[in-house]
Amino acid sequence: MEGAQVPERSLLGDLSVLSAGTALPEGSVAVGASTRVVGRSRFHAPELSGAARVTAKILLVPAQLSAAALVSFLGWVAFVAVLQTQVLPGIWNAIWALPVALLMSRLVRIVALVAFKWAVIGRIAAGNHPLMGGMYSRWVFLEALIMDAERVILVSMRGTVYLAALWRLLGARIGRGACIMGSSLGCEFDLKSIGVGSVLQPNAMVFAHSVEHHTLLFRATRIGDHVNVGPNSIVEAGAEVANAVRVPANRAVHARLVAAAADATSRPDDCGGDPLALEQQAKERLAPAVFAYFANGSESGRALRRNLDVFKSIAICPRRLRDVSVIGLETRLFGRLLSSPILVAPSAMHRLLHTDGEMAVARAVERRHAGMVLSMLSTTPLEQVVRPFGSGRGLALFQLYMLKDRGLTDALVQRAEAAGYHGLVVTVDSPASGRIDIDPREWLRFSQALELVHLPKPVDSSVLPLVRFESMKDPSLKFSDLVALRHARNCRSA
Q1: Residues of the chain under the 50 pLDDT cut
Q2: What is the pTM of this model?
């Protein structure tokens, strides 16, 4: 906006807004509609001499024009060849031969595009390349051919299996059932990955490249399974979109920037500690069925509303004339020093939210010197989730449901003990789960794509994992069963 200042060595992300009169700090990277600093830029001085850059500019334009002229000539040759072989021998053949001839002239552009991609630039790997250098020149050359093909034929292929097949031929990883209605610009297809059943809406764009001062950067960009990228949205180079996420229209998904000296108090999507604001962000990004599973209560939601009302009614009673020169929330539990007495409660199927799933939560908890309870219905094996806590920071506990199959229950306890968990949190208040108001068709699509790794593999794959789990729980659980469990394993339980 008017009066805003972006220093030469700073970056402002796509679709980001810098308020009037605002100046970015020198060397910073900022994103968002309400701009937030998320990292530090790392610019490099030009690696090419002035003469080399001028030479590249002079040669690049004729090369692009020559390639475009060659492709057009080959298309014209194909058009004429069809007419000569089919129309001239019999004028009535023109009824079907003319459309075929026109189509052939366009298909030549697709064949030429694939051929030029592999002959001129080959497989693209993540990395940095100097502007106007060899890789940059070849990349711009191919990008010009894609823009020409996009205008002539690729637009008409959007939404069809043919465009997805073309992306695969160009090196992209496209999952089964993916629908591409967006732009094909960005010829670094080798670094683009789109998951099963995902949709790019009209004019959505996926990039695996960016240009920072004198440098062309290639970064792998991944879109998970069953993602819906809204119209006119952009997925930036290096970004990851988790499974089942809905990207709203006209939004940009930014890469996760990790840089030295980043402002530790300024994080992407910082909600200022407001859980309601965080919940609203989740609602905007997640598929409705996934959000409903994590946010809604069961049945009418009466118990959830009551819990929230009770929590709001809690007040902190201040005490006067107390020594507060040294304060802290630290506490010890099972011999571990924790930064807070509050633990991350168990919740199922984190990979519905992000491809890293429970591992991302474990890493965050360990960094905060906090504690977490891993759900028995996790999508990551318990042995992997406990690894970050091997540093000696934080605390890992394992949630346990008592199953009808006591052998399976005991095997899970043994695995948790061997892996290094400090105790069990036994769930006793859920002999039967309530119904959650979710679109069954949407929920079926998401939940069947994930495996509950602590349960045996199903015999009948048509049964939903959570439905099968309900039949495995023991509704006859009594206090004496917990006493027997504690004595048999000599373990800590809560």
Answers
A1: 257-268
A2: 0.50
